[in-house]
Design a protein that fits this description.
Two copies of one chain form a homodimer. Chain A is an alpha/beta fold and 223 residues long. In chain A, 45% of the residues lie in helices and 18% in strands. In chain A, helix 8 links the parallel strand 6 and strand 7. At the A-B interface, helix 1 and helix 6 of A face helix 1 and helix 6 of B.
């Protein structure tokens, strides 16, 4: 049956990828660069969030960004015009980035110069969670309009992320979104997950998120 | 390199799947059942939209629904409690449904009794668009909070769908979403795409969408 064949192939791909990811993490450690893998559904506001964080990281660390999409360069243009060093990666139709593609992107960016590189993955709650990119940790964004049931439907995304950002809290009054339920749903998948409520648009909550990320980046840099 | 190996394997899987999809369409024609493949990002409102359409189809056609998710049965429960015949399909972690999995679902549902079956695919703008499920046509939902740039980033989704539903128009005032730009972006991918602006929550626009779908279902049934 077709689906079993796919799963077998993916298995060996996963194993190869895990080795690549470990190698990449070792290289990053040597070059003193921390890598964060940022994931979400399409349109959750990853790019606007990154812009807000970049503003808060200024003077505190050197940031590089890798925008990943199947097509277009709209996000990279947005980041560049805000003065953030950014490259655009196209996946050639693929729904995720693996560790080898991530390394190619890092070399293109010239990652030695950066304390932190953020990889903005393809907008997708399924495939990106399956591939270790070599990042030090994964962060996922869930926006209020998407609904509080997403951790029930996409378990692996929440299991593999240590930070959950609930974005677009400025529109909470217009949606049936329960802030306690979403935390409970996410903790069902990952009891340790750190949850931040923010509005990338208004800036609400971004200072706390930026502080948390700076602490973690510094912890990795001084390891 | 890993990514080339994946693409080759996918190619043969696609070819096998295309044959399965054609066979399934022939079977559906014989049984006089139309199949629609409904796709979108996570949280675009596919299930609420389907509920609204089901209400409008009542007394006019016999509807069956197949809810597809990686985990949970929240959508199937919602549909069932509204009196719509529904089964839940779990993909075992996979990001899409292929034609063979769709056939298994249809057999489980007992599709002979239905004029129309709607397959609510996994919330994902990438993988589901790559696999022909055997449906007569594909419909995609894009909700206002996701942004009007999605057709630029996810070309195949818009190329493979003949109906685009812009959902959550009730929250247009709270988001920077250009209704003309989204249509232009979608038509760049597919000049023939039919676009409907609706709010599944308030019911706005659902009558016209339901009429359009009924016409197309009837056209297929009398072919």
């Amino acid at each position: 049956m077709d689906e079993i064949r796919i799963i077998e192939v993916k298995q060996s791909v996963f194993e190869d990828n895990d080795k690549d990811a470990e190698m990449l993490r070792a290289e990053l450690k040597e070059k003193k660069t921390v890598l964060i893998n940022l994931m979400s559904s399409p349109g959750s506001g990853k790019t606007t969030l990154l812009l807000g964080l970049a503003r808060r990281f200024k003077e505190r660390l050197r940031l590089g960004v890798m925008e990943v999409d199947i097509d277009s360069a709209v996000d990279a243009k947005t980041m560049l015009s805000a003065g953030v060093d950014t490259i655009q990666i196209h996946t050639g139709g693929m729904c995720h980035l693996d560790a080898d593609m991530t390394r190619q992107g890092l070399l293109e960016l010239g990652f030695e110069g950066y304390d932190l590189v953020v990889l903005e993955n393809v907008g997708n709650l399924v495939c990106p969670a399956e591939f270790d990119t070599g990042a030090h940790f994964n962060m996922t964004v869930l926006s209020v309009p998407e609904g509080d049931d997403k951790p029930l439907k996409y378990p692996l995304m929440y299991e593999t992320c240590s930070v959950l950002v609930i974005n677009k809290v400025d529109v909470l009054p217009y949606f049936d979104f329960d802030t306690e339920r979403v935390v409970a749903n996410a903790r069902m998948r990952n009891p340790e997950i750190k949850v931040f409520f923010v509005s990338a648009k208004t800036g609400q909550g971004l200072d706390e998120l930026a502080e948390h990320l700076l602490e973690r980046v510094n912890a990795h840099l001084t390891e």
